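Sat 14:20. Reprocessing the chain from the morning session after the first attempt stalled halfway. Input below, unchanged.
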Amino acid sequence: MIDARFFSMAAAFIFVPVVALPAPVQTGEAIEFTSHRAVYDLKLASSRGNRPIEAVRGRILYDFSGSRCEGYALQFRQVSEIDAGEGVRMMTDMRAATWEDAAAKSFRFNSENFVDQEPKNAVDGQAERGSAQVDVRLRKPAIKSFGIEADAFFPTDHMRRIIVAARQGKTLLQGPVFDGSDTGEKVYDTLTVIGQPIEPDAQKPDDAAGREEQLSKLRRWPVAISYFDKTKADGDQLPVYGIRFELYENGVSRALSLDYNDFVVSGTMTSLETRPSKACD
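Finished this time. Tokens:
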């Protein structure tokens, strides 16, 4: 299950005329997420900036574990080498760890960013959902406490809501998301567009997902998530960043497309290991 806090990108999304947006998904429906470790190889898919990127190569390591009784933990690392041409190259290394309880009341987040092996920034904090607001306490980059709107989604709950909406045949989901990214203070407005389901016996993947027997029995949906800057009131604004992928009912994602505005990076799942989750008492 990929959550977009780990990518600084801008995604174009399918513009759909909306008569009425779907009602918010109720938080009571449980989704059985599968604990798994996935590796995605990254490469440049396209470049459209004024100074085109010549090449990108890299890798994502995504290790997700947990259950409804013990909460969900994520260990993540993305390393990318970007060749901007004329001898300009940059190596980025993003490492993160999060934990979120199944009731979406508590969220802990920690991340570090390196550029050319030099540390650039670090974020460490936690958020607790109350009846009136979500209380956020940061330890890095500075000690700080503040409140955000009570209806903000945490990342795993956001993904759960997408799967529930997809099962219900909905094609759109909107809502604010707090993921601890940037300086740990950002809340993004999001629009998720959900495509038609791909049935288990259709379009067998040619990557590591296609070799996993558990996935061969599950539906999946094409998903595009666009993130918008809440501080800008312009209703016609473009998304700040986004991500496209195919999402299985158990939370595993494949066929990544990461749009960094000036260039697009594709992520191919080259390795997938699923693990049994701890059973709830």
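Residues 4-275 form one domain.
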